[in-house]
Amino acid sequence: MIALKAVRGFHLGNERVQVAGLPVKTVRAAATGPERRSDPNGSYPVGQLYVQHFQLHQPQARYPLLFWHGGGLTGACWEDTPDGRPGWHLHFMQRGYDTLVSDAVERGRAGWARYPEINPLEPEHRTVEQAWEQFRFGPEGGYVPGAPQQRGFPGQRFPVGSMEQFARQFVARWTNSTPATLRAYETLVRHAGPCVIIAHSQGGYFALEAARRLPDLVKALILLEPVAAPGPGGALGSRYKAIPHLVIWGDYYSESPIWRQYRAGVQRYLDNMAAEGGCVSTMDLPSMGIHGNSHMLMMDDNSDQLATMVHDWLAEAGCYRQ
Amino acid sequence: MIALKAVRGFHLGNERVQVAGLPVKTVRAAATGPERRSDPNGSYPVGQLYVQHFQLHQPQARYPLLFWHGGGLTGACWEDTPDGRPGWHLHFMQRGYDTLVSDAVERGRAGWARYPEINPLEPEHRTVEQAWEQFRFGPEGGYVPGAPQQRGFPGQRFPVGSMEQFARQFVARWTNSTPATLRAYETLVRHAGPCVIIAHSQGGYFALEAARRLPDLVKALILLEPVAAPGPGGALGSRYKAIPHLVIWGDYYSESPIWRQYRAGVQRYLDNMAAEGGCVSTMDLPSMGIHGNSHMLMMDDNSDQLATMVHDWLAEAGCYRQ
């Protein structure tokens, strides 16, 4: 049983663009209804983020948890797993954490800016096959569209039989939205106040940047397979160095040259941080005897075990009960 | 305090398309990371719907409530109002209703199919100005972009000072997605089982269609300013005739020729239904002495009062306590 004080959903953002000079159209929104005018010229808010805030009646955790999804996904990735088990969001609420689950700029309920008139770039849509390879589920070309059985890497913990269900949560992404996304996440952290961020993949990059910018508010970072790290910046401030970072890596890196590159880049950043006195813990799951995890750690068949490890680490870091 | 058993989020849908023959690109998802291959060819699930299911520990209501948004919006429209008050979703949960809040096909967390390769049609993006007119907030051309004060119709109950915040929840829509949306909503109703649907605007059309198709499962319909009704079909079955319909209309119809057209079409359908023995209640708010409501009834300053009226009607219709 989860005793909620409230659940709220809202958007954060402050930008606006004006569009002019486009032709006015006529559309019929319902087949049985009349036509109406559709004028695309006017003002549009852009760069907003959507967040759903679950406030517990009596939170047990010291700080709320912010859940930041990866590229081409939304906050839905923290809810049910593709094979229908409860996800990390429910897990952490049950442990007594307030949560804020966001859809970043241009994904999900955040909406997306029209292209090419506002955003000149085309979006990228991920195929099931692309996910199969990028998320280290199985060998290149090994996905059979729609088949209920799929042959993932030996010992694969991701529910590969639910690939298509997983792919239903994919959303288009734009590779030029990083600056707007960072602004929106900064606004979110300021809104949340002192908080812990759990971030996956691309979200890990945003979380590292946000912590650099707002070291007084980010009390801990959990980075699930971060895909990139900030570029070389100035020296780390003492407040930043005090933020505990937990980085978790799954399995099958030997199968993925691109992931070895991603990880090497992030590792350089973390090594520099540690050398400067930063606070980095790493869980390389295979070297801890936990084999078979994909890029989608929070959906793998040991997702509850991993969530418990994260919770225990947060408690150790002083981020659970006061 | 709301005692939840669980909150789950997932997608429903069964369709798949294959794309072939498109050029393979190279993208750099993070400025600091390496480039990677982006092959748009392969399989995509399409036509799915996203739903978030809030299960109460001890529901008081006889049936769960399904919340169906209108065109160009998502399930977020039932959460906070643009001026930050709690929305209908929280209101009904607090009264003891289990809820299922969906993002229909091609909106929000449901994702959208690439165009023109899968969906040949361009989407429609709503401007703030278009919403100002279509939602009967104020006189044509009366919206001043970004101004904190806006001059709505006299007595306007929509928080017009929060227009831009409202517009942050707008999402692109496609006017050709009706068949796929109906299929997805049918799947949702079958998933939910016996249920009550609260539907706004375009969602009202879908709800009327769904009730015709699944009269054993839809136990009552609440239609907030439905924008259209099904076309002439066969005679109404006896099971359909037993479903109580509540239709609610706001104010300012005299200011909107297109809304008079929409409403006239729906009214013909409802009149036919009543003539055949169907069960239709209408709340025309101005004629009940409640003036100043816009198209966005659930966001107007009397949204709690209206929700209470809906709840009372549901209790009267036997849909609350058993």
Tell me what you see in this structure.
2 copies of one chain form a homodimer. Chain A has 322 residues and is an alpha/beta fold. Chain A has 8 helices and 12 strands. In chain A, the strands form 3 sheets. Chain A has an 8-stranded mixed beta sheet, with helices on both faces. In chain A, strand 9, helix 5 (202-213) and strand 10 (218-224) form a beta-alpha-beta unit. The longest helix of chain A has 19 residues, at 257-275. The first copy, chain A, is globular, with a radius of gyration of 21 Å. The two termini of chain A are 23 Å apart. The mean pLDDT of chain A is 95.
Major sheet of chain A, described briefly?
A: 8 strands, mixed
Largest interface (C-beta under 8 Å):
A-B, 88 and 86 residues
| Structural class by secondary-structure content of chain A | alpha/beta
Instruction: Calculate Rg of chain A over CA atoms.
Output: 21 Å
How far do the termini of chain A sit from each other?
23 Å
**Order of helical and strand elements of chain A:** EEEEEEEHEHHHEHEHEHEH
Please count the beta strands of chain A (DSSP E, at least 2 residues each). 12
- Mean pLDDT of chain A comes to 95
Q: What helical percentage do the residues of chain A reach?
A: 25-40%
Query: Beta-sheet strand percentage of chain A?
Result: 15-25%
- Summed up, the helix count of chain A is 8
Assembly state of the chains shown: homodimer
Low-confidence stretches of chain A: none
